Amino acid sequence: MTPTLHILLAICLAPALALVLLLIPSRARSLREALAVVAATANLGLVATTFGQQSRIELPWLGTSFDLSLRVYHTASFVTTAAAGFGLLVTLYSLPFMRKHSAHGAHYALMLLSLGMANGAVFSNNLLLLLFFWEGLLGTTYGMIAIGHAGAFKTATKALIISGITDLCLMLGIALVWAQAHTLTMTNLRLPLEGMAPAAFVLLMIGAISKGGSMPFHSWIPDAAVDAPTPFMAFLPASIEKLLGIYLLSRLALDLFELTPQSWLSTLMMVVGSVTILLAVLMALIQKDYKRLLSFHAVSQVGYMILGIGTAVPIGIVGGLFHMINHAMYKSCLFLTGGAVERQAGSTDLASLGGIGRKMPITFACFIVAAASISGVPPFNGFFSKELVYDGALERGTIFYLVAVAGSFLTAASFLKLGHAAFLGPRDKKNDGVREAPGAMLFPMLVIAGFCIFFGVNNAFPIDQLIVPMLPEHLIAEARSAGTHFSGWPSNPTLVAMTAAALLGALINHGFGVKLYGSGLHAADHIHDSPGLRWVYDRAERRWFDPYELFMRGSAYFAQAANKIDRANDWLVVGLGRLAQFASRGVRAAHTGNTSAYIVWSLIAATFIVIYLGQ
Amino acid sequence: MNDAIVEIAMLVTFVLMALWAVLATKLLRAVVALAATSVLVTLLLFRLDSPLAAVFELSVCAGLVSAIFLGAITLTQPENEAEVAVSAKERIRRYWYLPPLLLLLGVALLQVALPDVPTTAAAADDVRKVLWTSRHLDLLGQITVLVAGAFGVIVLFKEARKNER
Amino acid sequence: MLTLFVLVPLLVLLLLNISWRALPRIVPQAAVLVLGFADVVFGLALPTLPVNSEIPVLSELHFGLVADDLTRVFLVSIGLVICAAAFVNQESMTTERAHRNFCSLLLVSLIGMNGAVLLSDFFSLYVFLEVTAIASFILIAIERGIFAVEGAFRYLLLSAVAAMFMLTGVGLMVFTIGDTTFSAVHESLTIANGSPLLLKMAVGIFIIGLFIKGGLVPFHGWLPGAYSSAPPGVSVLLAGIVTKVSGIYALVRIAQDVLVSDPSLSMILLVAGSASIVVGAIAAIGQSDLKRMLAYSSISQVGYIVIALGAGTELGIVAATFHLFNHAIFKSLLFVDSASVESRLGTTDMGKMGGIGAKMPWTGTTTGIAMLSAAGIPPFSGFWSKLLIVLALWKAGREGFAILAVVASVLTLGYFMVMQHRAFFGKPSTQLDSVKEASAGYVVPAVVFALITVLTGVFFPLLKDSPLSFLLLNKGLSW
Prior knowledge:
Radius of gyration of chain B: 20 Å
Order of helices and strands of chain C: HHHHHHHHHHHHHHHHHHH
Oligomer: heterotrimer
Order of helices and strands of chain B: HHHHHHH
Helix content of chain B: over 70%
Strand content of chain B: under 5%
Radius of gyration of chain C: 21 Å
Largest sheet of chain B: none
Number of helices of chain C: 19
Structural class of chain C: mainly alpha
Distance between the termini of chain C: 36 Å
Number of helices of chain B: 7
């Protein structure tokens, strides 16, 4: 197979099969599922075999100067393979989970479509082409949320608007890049940060981190966690969107712009990252719903990646990228356990759960592995990537490091609370009949949990083989000359001690909370109720800090306009339509059917033409 | 000098006739006025040494078009006296702006500076000859116009009368 | 042999009418269909035909007819629309006599249009446009409904005004250079001896007449009434091709061969075009009658063609011609569909149609295709021509007009969505229970036209190198 065909197939095969899938009648659900699994497997095979290849494909488009340019290289192969892997696992997981769902076919079709779009976005070597696939993913996100239940439409619209606005920023950024460099081919871009370039960088960065789910563009994710089907959460916000967002961010920071640690943009990224870590984890701590709690962590963890890449020093970047793949693994695993609990126990409300760990031992075990990973407990993968990020952050400023460690402490605290409230403690009577999830749901969880351990214990493989080759040559050389080595046990024992202290602190804090309130569910309430924080929390729960909600409340006029966008179907007819009808009435009033008037119009216009020509 | 006076007189009459055609309360009078404007245009075209255009204007506009007008008139109901009076007033009120407008447009058109034209028209006779001898296609066209006109009269006139009977 | 395009229909017309007995209905119908089809076939095959080797008897009647790619596009469009009109008419005309008269007048119209697109002289152009126009007056009024007569009458009045302007233009040409052929006028304009200003004004005054015939804003007063009150087959003919040949063809011809990239002509075309686009689209939104709405939409679409010519570049001419072809196809299709709805419901009031799409699936689907094509949605053919128009304007440095064209196509989508919403989608009311799909005479042309729209759109990227490249005038442009 030629490289061109190979790549085009990787982009087009899954969407094409998605269309075929839609043609299968809903009676033949098994056939649909079989096709989805085959397509996801084929997709994984296609992208995995690009490893080690280096090629570029130029497809001229309509004879314009815009070539549709694709590029196969290590980073793209890695990101797409990871995405395809999650795609396959979530497809398997969906088999039992989505079996009875009314939008069965649409779910699989949209998943396959998303996989194709993700491949396209990562293989694009042209920013415009990337934007095309980026927008395509926006569409599938909308669709996958909207099929959740009857009311999910509102959340889907929220996601669409937030991401739509940030994609607009991306578009503007691309336009600025064009104005600056006169090319959109990514391999030809290496912009110094001067003139308009910082503005372009910020706009592109907004597009990237918004896809990653960073604050302040995060607010649809917790809503979607409640409204959308759980496989969607594991699939898009937890893994694929993170991979893509951080992929683009790393390209921006590493290749497209000459970002140095001295640049204010680097500091900006670190600030965004730190704020995201801290605020989102604070919100996560007080959630009373399994999936909603996880979704705030999906926001918080992306802060570590932005912080890591934002440091612009090799060790931080490696940490950020390693954290990207680790997070995709443990967070999707966590969502999958959430889905298993939802399916078996019928609820994700922590108040009605509790004590089901004994009934669902494998799910619980997977949960423990993933939760330990996300909290940064050695020797799981999350520990190593966080240590690398800490190292980078410390190099740039102690304050960033302290925020990151504080985030770690709160993360651990909230997962102790979650695990305690959901799996341990007294069991409600109605949960007595809960049984372990079916094999097709356990298998993906086990695989991912296995990888969490593997990437932790044997971290030299992912770091040296997968992550470090993503860095540009000069950064690798810089790290080598400084004698930094990324893999293996962290080199700075002080940092490890600090982490251990934070984890221990979290454990003690949890014990204290349980003693105070008598239950795992309320173990974090003393933090919620602490002076100062309480005021913030109250307002956060009223969504004072959700930019989308702020925007919605902005003013009566704005609310009205947003409401109209909300009912996007009627909008054209009602709003614009009314204006057009008004204008139309005016035009119609002029057409009285009076022939003489028509002749007079013609003559007047004719006179103007003659006079114009006579000048 | 005389030529100029004649031409100006014809133009003025032309404008008056056109106004009448628009303002006339009865369709029949409007048709007559229109026919008269056609004749005047024809005469003007002849004077401008454009004989062929003149012939066609006469044959197409004054002839056939007026015939079809008459056809249309026979198909519409005449108004009674009271309605005519009302509509006449109505019409004057509606078109009071026409004469000043025409005047204004005329003044505006005068602003268009026409350059002096070399008189290729000197050989007007030659032009006529050339035009008539090399114009077979237009003859074909005119035959078709006549055929079509005949159709119009048959379709709209004859059958209408048949229906009345 | 190009003369045959005019002579054969004329001969057939005479033959059909000298017979002393009433011919069976099928004969005139077949004659029209064969001649229309011949237009399509010969239009497609023109370069392979021995155009210049004259048949002995006919060599006397050469007439200086010429055919280029622009002519071929028009011959094909004329043939297609004439056939569609004949089909629709076959279904909708009730009496034998009306049907026979209709066929004869259709032939007159065909003669006029064939002549108009083949000749190369301003005066002959006027004569043949007049032939077409007279056929149209009678066709509109042929059933003598009160609105139809009024519509025809109004058309006739404004045509008289147009004729006045065109003759004045021709007169001025004869006056200044003593010749009225396109090439002579073009030469005199470029050489600039004598009086280019007066000559230019002559062409300009001729163009005013064309504006009236083509129904551009503000010369469009006759158009909505004429289109909407005419019998169904006539609406197809008028909207599909007659106004395009009588108004727009000559504008394209002038832009291509006479006033080549003239800035003042460009400005006039741009202003008239954008006024038509906007006013037509806005007026269309408020219509409750399907045919009236399509009529205003025609004004808007013609505006697109004219604005493309206003770019003043070769690409602009290509875009205008291609949009003209597409418009002929999709607008005829829409009128055919409105005719099939009318045949079943007896009305074209959209308020009474709600949900008719479910009852008449073919009609509903083809209308949807035509509408998407008109609004410029890929992959239908209308998308490509609108893209070319916008590109042409942009490249010519008319960015403002390009943006206007894009924004106005949102309006287009708007009024067509209003139409679909009111007429075709939704739940059919109980009054429509007995309604069935229209008869084959309507469905066949509709499906054929829908196929043309879809295929031209889908295969557009290949069009440039295919035998059909004449649709893009073989200019070999890259964009």
